Amino acid sequence: MESVSACSKLNKTLRQHYLNLPQGGKCQVTYIWIDGSGEGLRNKTRTLDEEPKSIADIPEWNFDGSSTDQSKGSDSDMYLVPVQMFRDPFILDPNKLVLCEVLKYNREPAETNRRISCNKVMEATKEHCVWFGMEQEYCLLSMDRYPYRWPKGGFPRPQGPYYCAVGADCVYGRDIVECHYKACLYAGIKICGTNAEVMPGQWEFQVGPCEGIDVADHLWVARFILHRVCEDFGLLATMDPKPMEGNWNGSGCHTNVSTKQMREEGGLKYIEQAIEKLSHRHQEHISVYDPRGGEDNKRRLTGHHETANIEDFSHGVANRAASIRIPRQVGQDGRGYFEDRRPAANCDPYSVAEAIVRTCLLEGEDGE
After folding, report:
1. How far from 250 is each of 179, 236, 302, CA to CA, in Å?
2. Dihedral of CA 256/121/101/352: which sign?
3. Which end of the chain has less neighbouring CB within 10 Å, N or C?
4. Is the dihedral of CA 54, 179, 192, 279 positive or negative?
């Protein structure tokens, strides 16, 4: 099998001729949704007569849920309800990317539509002005699903020289990373940074700070854009929490959280209160921090490679081997945010954000 896909070798100059053709005032809108796996993204495109000015201008649509593991063939129509609109970085203005919720035939949320539940929690706590920042780690793979530029059947040098590295002997795939970053900025994604990670071929980008539901909306569309950029280059991106067994780091989605009280003078007290509440719900959080009830994270949260053991809850200042880290600057300032290091790279950010806010801000208020 070739390292890159055959499609990536097609004549891109010829393709550009067609992309440059005028659209006659029409607008192409690509609808994006989460499929029945809770990890995969699907999309399809339609024409609107004019450029939509807001999400209210984009009509609902539908799709065959039996082909995405979201319904049975006998009653397969599912609704796509637009919730967030972005500029399209692939076919450019005036075209749009639109993130959608999925509803079943009876207009109840699909099983993997966790946005509705998350949004209810965010609305119930909006006076707290909760800010999130999520750090999405991923690994670039060749088409044979082996890490990109790793020796076939072998391994690169041990971890050490790759984190935040520069140089062709240490950096694998920077072109994709930089194209993804620019595409996210063009689209309007609140991407705030990127860096090479500890394992060769592993990268991270950060989304935030975002208030409430926005962090998950923006992260899902940033993931979609990453997969599309990789498609153009003929590679794959995996969010598997442990893409390579052995003495290699796994991939997480560290989640930084701050309420209005945490950001104010004396906010460290509220950070410590939140951590205390989280300590009592450790296993509940682990069960929603990956799509398989914690089974994926078992391979990653071993107590090694900058992780805490999945069975134990811990916290500490500047401690990357803890479940919850308080950054050193926050400890010195006495206010700011905390970092939950437990979510897996393939987590549903709606589930993660909802669980954190529910535990930290609604415990004792909603009958739980």
Report:
1. 24, 17, 10
2. positive
3. N
4. positive
pLDDT at 368: 44
Helices 174-187 and 214-233: crossing angle, nearest 10°?
130
Nearest CA to 101 among 116, 86, 85? 116
Q: Quick one: tokens of 110? A: 């699909």
Measured distance CA(322)–CA(325) in Å, rounded? 6
- Which string of b and e fits 34-45 if b means at least 16 CB within 10 Å? bbbebbebbbee
Residue type, 89: P
How high is the pLDDT of residue 2? 75
Give the C-alpha separation, 228 to 51, whole Å. 22
Q: What is the pLDDT of residue 363?
A: 77
**The tokens of 98 are what?**
């639109």
In sequence order, which ranges of the chain are alpha helices (DSSP H)?
12-19, 115-124, 174-187, 214-233, 260-263, 268-279, 282-288, 295-298, 328-333, 349-357
Block residue for tokens 């707290």:
128
pTM over 0.90: yes
The tokens 């967030």 sit on which residue?
84
Burial 337-350 (b: 16+ CB within 10 A, else e): bbbbbbbbbbbbbb
Residue 150: other Cβ atoms inside 10 A: 17
Q: Which tokens sit at 238?
A: 């995996």
pLDDT digits (tens, 9 = 90+) for 165-192: 999 999 999 999 999 999 999 999 999 9
